[in-house]
Amino acid sequence: MLSSQTSPSRVTIPPKLASVLQVTPMALVFLALVIVPLGLIFVVSFLDYNFAQVFPELYLETWVDVLTSDLTLALYLKTFKFLIIVWAITAPLGFAIAYFLAFHLRSNWLRTLLVTAIAIPFWTSGPIRMVSWVPLLGREGVVNQALLGAGVIDEPLGWLMYSEFAVLVAYVQMLTMPMIATALNSMAKIPPSVIQAAQDAGASEWQIVRDIIFPLVRPGLAIGTIIVTTAIMGDVVMVKFMGGSQVNTVGMSIITDLNAFMYPPAAAKSILLLVVVLSIVVSLLRFADIRKELRN
Amino acid sequence: MTLALKTETPPPAPAKPRQVTQSHRFDAELVAVTKRYGPGAPAVDNISLRIPRGSYCCLLGPSGCGKSTTLRMLAGHEEVSDGAILIHDQEITHAPPVARGTSMMFQDYALFPHLSALDNVAFSLKVQGVSRAERRAKAKEYLELVQMDHLAERLPSQMSGGQQQRVALARSLITRPKVLLLDEPLSALDPFLRIRMRAELKRIQKELGISFIHVTHSQDEALALADLVVVMNNAVIMQAGAAREVYETPSNAFVARFLGGHNVVQRAGGGEASVRADQCVIGARPGLRSLPGTVSMIEYQGTAVRVSVTGTDDEELTALMPTSAFFNDALELGQSVMLSWDPADEHPLA
Q1: B301 and B243, same structural domain?
Q2: At what angle do helices A164-188 and A70-99 cross, to 10 degrees?
Q3: Would the CB atoms of B1 and A102 count as touching at under 8 Å?
Q4: What stretches pass through the bilayer (chain A) (predicted)?
Q5: Interface TM-score (ipTM) > 0.90
Q6: How far is it, in rounded angstroms, from Cα A143 to Cα A149?
Q7: pTM here?
Q8: Residues of chain A contacting B, Cβ within 8 Å
Q9: Within 13 Å, how many C-alpha atoms sit on residue A34's CB side?
Q10: Is B14 a member of any domain?
């Protein structure tokens, strides 16, 4: 009662208008940088083209080609293969490491130190990180030298670098960290008393992991999976560098079209990729209330 | 995040002959138990306590007095630095929680958030490998005991604090503990619910005939519930005894002050004594001891009026007066008065 009359000069905005005003700046940015370019790409994918030129004429062959060619299917299968292998390694690894960090470390400073150590690769720039694989996995690299020295192999292994294997190694190295981070975030929200209550009930460590921790961490793993999915589906840099020119994926085929100035097929492939990734993300979000996970 | 699933277990103690539980003397026993977290004052300092069979025991004290640490050591969620703990006369000082025959009801209830009330209660049976139908039937019985069977399929987030607490109680009881440990179980409830729930705790304890060890910082709660009140301060036990004994004959100034309703005064022959506030009156009378002071607070409490008098040396004394006596001759703040009591009502303190 007292405060309502204290500042008559203040203009009160109706709550509805206030919400609109609060949303407007981000909406404008989103419109200009996402919706409009996407619309353009969508339009371009239906246009006719020849070398380095796009004509404003409707041409549906691009889409027919993209949607029916065996190459598209092969590229998606290859990309999904990467995704499944990388997920199958990073998810258990991320869960296990996060579990160790959250529940088996008593010292807080050691935990901080280890989490920092996990994050170190992300402080270095991408090109440096990738160049560093050469002295490790290259023909003259540490791994080959060690294997040769130990007498395990007679000549250097060629498939360690510039191969699908190299791409997988780089993906795993890069994407384990987000899995750890999202799992750790979920684990940190489990009150110690919940674990103690399970111990009181007589649950073994394995039963606690399976029946209590895993179900509670599942949303975190779902978000980690989304990160892994979007990173791999949209990647071209890693494939290009680690795979040499030996490995082709969905992203690479878009780059190839762009390099050949074939914009409509590149646009159509991009739209298709977007639809595929969004469908995966939407189905994964059923496992995670993302708002709840991002809270505190 | 600092918890360890693996409690460091020292080398197993030599096998002891199994005692017949029917003939045990004490439900729980602490023998010279100490907890140190590092150099400096211990959190629990060499305390010994025996809890007779079927007791409702309250550990009472201000925050940081060591009562929760004591409870957690009993539960096996805290290592014992020194001393021994016995449950039903068997030494379990370093045994894992499940091997002790204790169950803990946590202050935050600690229900499993992804499981329904029924599955929460059935959890201990599930990990033992009891079949689904059997464990659900059993869990239903325990939900009935705490009158929660109608909400069996609710998730914890769909229940009120009081309801979650009942489920937590059922989840503890289904393990058939020899001793139930309760960590400030009522502190998160509103006052009305708190009084109802404490009556229920007492009923269930009597019904099951096991010991409850209940940590609280509320004097009312301890006096209302406990057969054995254990007042703690600064890591030691200040006094342990029946509720009435502790309230009427506090053994030291801390207990007298902490339980409330007492004045601590200097005795004529030296030393301190406690006098119950309801045995003090305002105004000097022949045969009574009196101290002068000014009225510093008047609190109407419905059945009585609480009058605080600040003496010359800033010591505050309280008289709890019947309402009628107060309003016959109402006092005012700042008024100079005498606060008097019968020397026979003085109880000498250590």
Answers
A1: no
A2: 40
A3: yes
A4: 20-46, 82-102, 109-128, 165-184, 220-242, 262-285
A5: no
A6: 10
A7: 0.80
A8: 102-104, 106, 108, 111, 187-188, 191-205, 207-208, 211-212, 215-216
A9: 7
A10: no
Residue with tokens 């404003």: A56
pLDDT tens sequence across A37-60:
999 999 999 998 887 788 888 888
Domain that holds residue A170: 69-294
The CATH number linked to B320 is: 2.40.50.140
Q: Does B172 contact chain A (CB < 8 Å)?
A: yes
B103's CB contacts (< 8 A; 6+ apart) are A200, B172, B173, B175, B177, B180, B181
B242 close to B227: Cβ distance less than 8 angstroms: yes
Region A216-241: mean pLDDT is 92
Contact B108 A208 (CB under 8 A): no
On whether the CB atoms of residues B312 and B292 are closer than 8 A, the answer is yes
* B294-348 residue pLDDT tens: 999 999 988 899 999 998 888 889 999 888 888 887 788 988 999 999 988 989 8
Cβ distance A211 to B126 less than 8 Å, yes or no, reads yes
CB < 8 Å to A199, chain B? 5, 77, 96-98
Q: Which residues in chain A are closer than 8 Å to B112, comparing Cβ atoms? A: 194, 197-198, 212
Any A CB within 8 A of B68 CB: no
CA dist., res. B17 & res. B126, Å (int): 30
Give me B291's structure tokens: 């101290």
- Tokens (6 digits) for B39: 């150099």
Q: How crowded is the C-beta side of A127, counted as CA atoms within 13 Å?
A: 0
Answer for the pair B224, B198: CB distance below 8 angstroms, yes or no.
yes
Size of interface A-B (CB pairs under 8 A): 85
Number of structural domains (chain B) is 2
Tell me the residue range of the domain where B327 lies.
272-348
Task: List, for residues B252-264, the tens digit of each pLDDT value.
Answer: 999 998 998 899 9
